[in-house]
Amino acid sequence: MGRLTGITVTRAARHALACACLCIWSAHAAGQALAQDLNETVASVPVTVNNLYGRAFTGKVIVTQFKPAGAGPFPIVIINHGRGNDRSKPGRFRYTQQARFFTERGFAVFVPTRLGYGDTGVDPDPEDSGGCRDKDYAPMAEAASTEVLAVLAYAKQQPYVNPERVLLVGQSVGGYTTTATAAKMPQGLVAAINFAGGSGGDPETHPGVPCQGSKLENMYARFGKTAKVPMLWIYTENDLYFGPQYSQAWHAAFNQAGGQAELKLLPPFAKNGHTLFVAGLNIWEPLVAEFLGRNGFPAEPLKQ
After folding, report:
1. Cα–Cα distance for residue pair 111/175, rounded to 1 Å
2. Which of 136, 143, 141 is nearest to 212 (CA)?
3. Has domain 11-294 been given CATH number 2.40.10.10?
4. Residues 6+ away with beta carbon under 8 Å from 97
């Protein structure tokens, strides 16, 4: 896939990454107690992106990290968050229980809080894709995936990781971002998982029908041309953001373009299946474990 917009990590950001001149946050500064049993730490990674209107913005992605005990080397997983109605909350994304699933299987976990969310500040918003009638999802994909790649570059510098064993995971806009990042095929990427990926949904004004769903279908087809790692896509029949007719169409477009995604369209979950990643661990854990095993990662928790 060619460049979607002119978004790059700056030379200064690269230098800062190379020198590991990172801001380590205290628990007080992060506003949340750290999970000692998961070896939780917090850092920040500088990055520059452009938004929908071509304006450059430099900021710091907040990166919450979890790791198993020991020296490693551990495979890397990056978990990408979605886009809530109040982008100021939480101050930083953690997904502690989801992270625990991966650390138990020997992963080093990195959870970015992207620019425009939480303690990074909500303005400007690099992931703004315009009004519902005039969406442009390409700048969102480029901005978010650029940040994920900067976080991956940081993750690979950690002495306890295996930089050649990378898994990407994301929910909602994070699932869309995960797919966009997989399309760039970063070095070491082995597989990716998309939970309810998409954008532009509103369960109150148009339940199950995203804004400009055909444009998202075109974007997924674009991603499928270059994303050459196995993917697992998990959606539900009662997703009030993206109904099954959309997730199925997006999956078909992605695979027909050359992608390698397996779609799991699950029965209705709770009142809104879009919450499965956060609230339905007992449902998705067996599916993800099986997918991990097929792609050379541990499927079961490692013995302590």
Report:
1. 13
2. 136
3. no
4. 281
Enter the DSSP assignment of 212: T
- Show Cβ contacts of residue 142 under 8 Å, excluding neighbours closer than 6 positions: 3, 4, 5, 7, 49, 50, 180
For 74-112, write each residue's pLDDT tens digit.
Answer: 999 999 999 999 999 999 999 999 999 999 999 999 999
Q: 181 is written with which tokens? A: 């990042």
Task: Yes or no: say if 179 and 227 are a contact pair by the CB < 8 Å rule.
Answer: yes
- Residue written as tokens 């050379």? 296
Which residues 6+ apart lie within 8 Å of 25 measured at CB? 42, 43, 44, 62
CA distance 255 to 273: 23
CA angle 29, 33, 38 (to 5 degrees): 120
Torsion of CA 31, 123, 98, 153, to 10 degrees: -100
- Both tokens of 234, joined, read 């998990």
Dihedral angle sign, alpha carbons of residues 278, 207, 237, 255: negative
Residue 263's DSSP bridge partners are 233
Instruction: Classify 175 as helix, strand or coil.
Output: helix
Residues written for the chain: 304
The position carrying tokens 């007719």 is 245
Q: What's the pTM?
A: 0.90
Indicate the pairing of strand 260-266 with strand 230-236: parallel
